Amino acid sequence: MAPITEIDIKKQVFVKNAHLNNLKHIDVLIPKNKLIVITGVSGSGKSSLAFDTIYAEGQRRYVESLSSYARQFLGKLEKPKVDDIKGLAPSIAIQQKVISSNPRSTVGTSTEIYDYMKLLFARIGRTFSPVSGEEVKKDSVSDVIDFIKSAKKDTSFLLTAPLEYDIENFIENLNILKLAGFTRLEVNGNVAGIEDLESFGFTPEKGMIINLVIDRFSYEDDESFLQRLADSIQMAFYEGRGYCSLKNIETGDKKDFSNKFELDGLEFLEPNVHFFSFNNPYGACPTCEGYGKVIGIDEDLVIPNKALSVFEDAVASWKGETMSEWKKDFIKKAKDFPIHKPYHQLTKEQKNYLWKGDGKSTFPSLNNFFAMLEENLYKIQYRVMLSRYRGKTLCPTCEGLRLREETTWVKIDGHNIQSMIELPLDELLPMISNLKLSDHDKEVAKRLLYEITTRLEFLLKVGLGYLTLNRTSNTLSGGESQRINLATSLGSSLVGSIYILDEPSIGLHSRDTENLIGVLKNLRDLGNTVIVVEHDEDVMRAADYIIDIGPEAGYLGGELVFAGDYKELKNADTLTSKYLTGRLEIKVPEKRRKAKEFIHIKGARSNNLKNIDVDVPLESLVVISGVSGSGKSTLMKEILTNDIQIQLGMGGKKGDYDSVEFP
């Protein structure tokens, strides 16, 4: 290693005498703006060097640079056991841990994609009435003027505003209108002077349509006329509480205008950023308050074995001498319901019929059954039974999508925000890229679409195309969280920083590792130093510089046994080199143990699994492999592990499958 005097801190980071944990007073020279891999056997001191020394000192220096007022909230950070680190840049650690335990945090919010989508729908979203399907618009003064301009030249118009009146105090109302400067009314289509109506002692009848005449004119292409017209229209909207009308005096045709956001007798909320936020009361579902789940009757507890039919006692709550009467009553009254069909094969409409019935409170549906239990909560046996079937379930109002129903009425090219956040990312990207927009909307949304698509591309590059934006962060694995953090960092376009990652390739298929390497190189090419604690051969081969800590683990490690590129590593005398070159290898057993007993998993359908049957051999070392997102963890965690926990009485939530059979 070169003497300290020859070190260029603009191009290199120099770690002097690091002696934390297993590290044995080592000096390390790290080139800047390169992809560096720190490797070595487990426990040799890789993380101690990368995270506990380099990153910790970077964080300490950052905190020390803040004001004394800010530091009091952050606490004091201990200096790592190292004499000095020269050339250190701001450091960012991306470790294998779940980003957040907050149930409101999702993939969309943590990557900032959802923030841009909220802006996108607020800016160019169009609201459509659920009644007629027509677009909801509100009229402005300019819209009224444009309508007038579109008419034939010299067409005469009558501008009116609807008048609210009190029959008993009508004469007083007329006096107020006269004092305000108005002289005419339109009564059932006929124009009359206010003074004439007073002199005749006119009294309106109930239901009579009376409008206040604001102006009468023929269109002129003159600036002063247009100013007068705009003032008249503004006054008409004001006097009509948001409504006004134009009547063609010659033909009698009438055109109504409203500056309220309404259609089909419904008043709609105008889209804004908060309207699409489930973390804001303005946009959150009123039932679940934006969580997507509520405490209620859990379908998985009521129907634990979905391979059974109603006739075969699929409904666990309808067992026993007393409660089975509900099952008999349902079978008797159910119209065209397939009582011998397995529950998982029922259509959505058939399931709704089982749960909701025909809408009458006397029908023996599941909802009415549990309503009966709630009515009898004063009896302890009913309280106990009800508690057996309660759990966190999807919100019945928003069905887990967290937003109020009105957000589904706002669409861009036929798609609403709720349908978008439920799509896998590898399907969402082409949808966003191919949106058909007007020239105006393209210009408005240009920057937003760029931010959304680039972040989606980064997520796909790190092998997360199977996730949805609505996936909660606390359900992600440590590897998925790390890759999301990595993609977010790439999307933020920070430069001149040191990124430190902890085995980002763990759990990745070879196909996805190649994409990951591309992301790491992109991060480097932005002008960052990327330090990766890694064992994967493909990542090591792609690295610009490799640091090998060893020679072994614990007190036998902690030494710098190699520093250089991949070609030089192959000729080095280290354990890493020996396994990479084949001088040492893990021997493949000549004979395989033959399994005699199996766990039989039938009809696994949770998440990405497509109704598969799997036999897992017992008393064997079993490996489940496949590309990221293929369903490996779902099969083992959500189905097999949860079923074992349920059978042992340890809790656990039943996944979507027919059965798990043990020998």
From TrEMBL:
A Pfam family assignment: UvrA_DNA-bind
GO molecular function, one term: DNA binding
The UniProt record lists the keyword Transcription regulation: no
Span of domain UvrA interaction: 140-248
Domain (UvrA DNA-binding) ranges: 298-363
Subcellular locations according to the entry: Cytoplasm
Keyword Repeat included in the entry's annotation: yes
GO biological process per UniProt: DNA repair
Gene3D superfamilies noted in UniProt: 3.30.190.20, ABC transporter ATPase domain-like, ABC transporter ATPase like domain, P-loop containing nucleotide triphosphate hydrolases
Record-linked InterPro entries: ABC_transporter-like_CS, P-loop_NTPase, UvrA_DNA-bd, UvrA_inter
Keyword terms: ATP-binding, Cytoplasm, DNA damage, DNA excision, DNA repair, DNA-binding, Excision nuclease, Metal-binding, Nucleotide-binding, Repeat, Zinc, Zinc-finger
Recorded superkingdom: Bacteria
GO cellular component, one term: cytoplasm
Family assignment from sequence similarity: Belongs to the ABC transporter superfamily. UvrA family.
Annotated protein name in UniProt: UvrABC system protein A
Lineage of the species this protein comes from: Bacteria, Pseudomonadati, Bacteroidota, Flavobacteriia, Flavobacteriales
